[in-house]
């Protein structure tokens, strides 16, 4: 069974000689200040806190999980959703129509670990309007584009370690510009816990159950993740995320071997590409896998996402899912055509380092057998 996330008990995930995330960040984003947090949303709040006043607004792409805008709301900022092209470039006409003198920041999102198309034009625009560029890299903690770690391409950025490693929580705040670095004052939620807590134990216990009973358990990520379609109220999600990074996450982060993990994810991404290449009811969201990218998942646009998900489950893939549930103000609004269409038809397939490419080939054979 192919699960959504790697297991903490998978020995291949971390090596005694793994460089860990710190050294990888310092290698690919030299000189950038960074801090660990329990969640990307809280990191985002702390990163912006010293820079903005209540009453401003922040532009975010409409194709997004609902809780991601809660830190802006906590800071007294109005989140405004901008439309996307089918390529996932911002619809710049729509974006500019929503910008005004109270706009304090524009967020880009590196979907599925790939840089959001149009990043350079967006950076030009934030320069022109004198607002901050937030590089939301929740999905791609170790992706590198144009020689720089994703998440560090704006003034400030975040990444979510839970989307890379078998950890109960964990995120990084990047302070890429001098102004952001100078204004930064960490709250009590910054940093890493120095003791193991109840959540660490709960995570380990669930991991044991998942490993022992594999096919019956969908994923521990399902009760941890904002992206889960059964997610409850976004404010409750945000409040629940307010804790420093756990000690268990810190230990796994320090032992990780990012180069090996990226290589494994790339191999699995390519395996899905081969396996699904002859399906004319599916279109991959990314045809190419540029050097440096560590994919979060392998997303495809499916003509009938529900029946494809059911076929995948029958073929042994428990970790595929649609993404995301949209915020209510975006759902069904014709102004956000791409976001609504993608939320309906994207199926994201797991590529994590706990999967052997041969398991993906086997799923491919089973899927072909059904057609
Ligand atoms: C694009 C994006 N940004 C930010 C976040 C929030 O990250 P975290 O769950 O670490 O707060 C998510 C959620 O998973 C996300 O999908």
TrEMBL record:
Q: Does the keyword Transferase apply?
A: yes
What are the protein's UniProt keywords? Aminotransferase, Pyridoxal phosphate, Transferase
Instruction: Write one Gene Ontology MF term.
Output: transaminase activity
Extract one GO BP annotation from the record: polysaccharide biosynthetic process
Q: Which Gene3D superfamilies match?
A: Aspartate Aminotransferase, domain 1, Type I PLP-dependent aspartate aminotransferase-like (Major domain)
InterPro entries found in the cross-reference section? DegT/StrS_aminotransferase, PyrdxlP-dep_Trfase, PyrdxlP-dep_Trfase_major, PyrdxlP-dep_Trfase_small
The transmembrane segments are: none
Of which family is this protein a member? Belongs to the DegT/DnrJ/EryC1 family.
Q: What is this protein called?
A: DegT/DnrJ/EryC1/StrS aminotransferase
Q: Which organism is it from?
A: Natrinema pellirubrum (strain DSM 15624 / CIP 106293 / JCM 10476 / NCIMB 786 / 157)
């Amino acid at each position: 069974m192919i699960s959504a996330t790697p297991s903490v008990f998978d020995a291949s995930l971390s090596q005694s000689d793994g460089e860990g995330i710190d050294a990888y960040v310092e290698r690919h984003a030299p000189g950038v200040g960074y801090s660990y947090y329990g969640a990307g949303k809280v990191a985002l709040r702390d990163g912006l806190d010293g820079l903005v006043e209540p009453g401003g607004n922040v532009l975010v792409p409409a194709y997004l999980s609902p809780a991601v805008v809660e830190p802006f709301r906590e800071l007294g900022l109005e989140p405004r959703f901008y439309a996307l092209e089918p390529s996932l470039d911002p619809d710049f006409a729509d974006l500019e129509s929503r910008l005004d003198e109270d706009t304090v920041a524009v967020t880009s999102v590196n979907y599925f670990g790939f840089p959001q198309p149009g990043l350079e034009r967006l950076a030009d625009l934030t320069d022109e309007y004198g607002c901050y560029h937030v590089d939301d890299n929740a999905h791609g903690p170790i992706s590198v584009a144009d020689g720089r770690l994703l998440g560090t391409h704006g003034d400030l950025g975040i990444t979510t370690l839970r989307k890379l490693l078998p950890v109960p929580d964990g995120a990084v705040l990047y302070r890429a510009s001098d102004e952001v670095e100078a204004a930064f004052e960490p709250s009590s939620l910054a940093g890493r816990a120095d003791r193991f807590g109840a959540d660490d134990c709960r995570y380990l216990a669930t991991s044991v159950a998942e490993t022992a009973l594999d096919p019956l358990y969908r994923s521990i990520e399902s009760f941890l993740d904002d992206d889960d379609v059964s997610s409850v109220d976004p404010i409750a999600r945000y409040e629940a995320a307010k804790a420093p990074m756990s000690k268990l996450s810190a230990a796994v982060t320090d032992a990780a071997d990012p180069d090996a993990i990226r290589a494994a994810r790339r191999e699995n991404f390519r395996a899905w590409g081969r396996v699904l290449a002859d399906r004319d009811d599916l279109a991959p969201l990314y045809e190419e896998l540029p050097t440096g990218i560590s994919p979060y998942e392998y997303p495809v646009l499916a003509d009938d996402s529900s029946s494809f998900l059911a076929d995948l489950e029958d073929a042994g893939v428990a970790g595929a899912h649609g993404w995301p549930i949209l915020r209510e103000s975006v759902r069904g609004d014709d102004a956000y055509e791409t976001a609504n269409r993608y939320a309906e038809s994207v199926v994201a397939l797991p590529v994590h380092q706990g999967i052997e490419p041969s398991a993906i080939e086997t799923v491919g054979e089973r899927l072909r057998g059904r057609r």
